[in-house]
Write a structure and sequence with these properties.
globular, 3 domains, 7-stranded antiparallel β-sheet, 28% helix, Enolase-like, domain 1, FAD/NAD(P)-binding domain, alpha/beta, 7-stranded mixed β-sheet
Amino acid sequence: MAEYDYDLFVIGGGSGGVRAGRVASSMGKRVGIAEEFRYGGTCVIRGCVPKKLLVYASQFSKSFADAAGYGWSVGTTRFDWSILRDAKDVEITRLEALYRKGLTNAEADIFDQRANVKDAHTVVLADGKELTAERILIAVGGRPNPMADLPGSEHGINSDTIFDLAELPKSMVVLGAGYIALEFACIFANLGTKITVVYRGEEILRGFDNDVRVHLREEMQKNKNIEIILETNIKSIALDGDVRKVTLTNGATLDADQVLLAAGRLANTDTLGLKGAGVEMDKAGNVIVDDYSRTNIPSILAVGDVTNRVNLTPVAIHESMCLIETEYKNNPTKPDHELVATAVFTQPEIGTVGLGEEEAAKQFEEIHVFKASFRPMKNILPGREEKMLMKTIVDAKSDRVVGVHIVGPESGEMSQLLGISLKMGALKSDFDKTMAVHPTAAEELVTSYSPSYVVKNGKRIT
């Protein structure tokens, strides 16, 4: 048997790579891990965590406005972007230290530099040193699409750089209408930035239940700072002093302090050496893996966004834990990518798990749809017209709940618990037998006894 420097060498210090490296090392395996930027990856450094902190900050504007309806007199308020930005940096630094500490305590070797793949068992560090490993794990994640073919794209910012702006922009054009684009649109609109969203599609949030898409767009458009332009793209961006001149494909021109390019992400594989090592990738550069996260090269594995399965942090961690079971515990375990609960931290917030109506109608002969739209109690006294959407989709034949979609306050928290219910195969009758918690918005999920309408053979019949 060949002697290697490491049992496992991990390339990428994000959530998936760190989890695999730390657990393998704690089991006594010799582990090396390389990261060229900061440990914690997209989620901790430039994604989920800093984004959620910005979401919290942006929600105060609504809270201050609503307080008067509850008898509070709020004095003059002022927002300071630099204070938020710097406080966010302190928290990220704290979290990165915890990631490093976990690896150090597990006695993994940490390399603060880039590593590329040379062959099935060899990696090359940026300093030129070559290291061998019985297994190599690719966990390099993705990056924002730089939109290099867009004239003037160098004048835009992306979902990495937006966190470190020198000052809060007065106006911003957002290209894209996926969850990243819309989350930032809502954040900055509530911080006082005039937002214009530009998207080439017919409706925002492609891939989500259509009622969710329409409801969110309508609620966002009620905010005077958010304009959404559909079926249009950006033709070019030009810099005129400090102003970005944005020309649209419909002939219109917009002026903005910043332009956020948030139309997709790319796998970080183009210069990693995988092609030379014989690792199969798709046309977009995503690493192709089997059900056990193995590539076509038996000693090279991959988890997380770089595989483009379900691109969420908890999924990358789950894939890593399944990999450990498979490779080191003689317990072949496939990652389960079904019924993954998801939260979108737009404002209003989205929580969803399972199939949307359109998908369910294709999979089942008959579905029952339970849908309600109402003003949450918290919005009544302030006179706020924002409505909440709750939608439950049931396979009529089995009575199994196959999808739940919520738009409104605390939807993400609800979706986590609903994920457990649907994972256990909950029936609509189980929902009906569950006592309501009153007064809550969530009680709507267990007090809807008759379907709003029925879809049979893909057609709505009642």
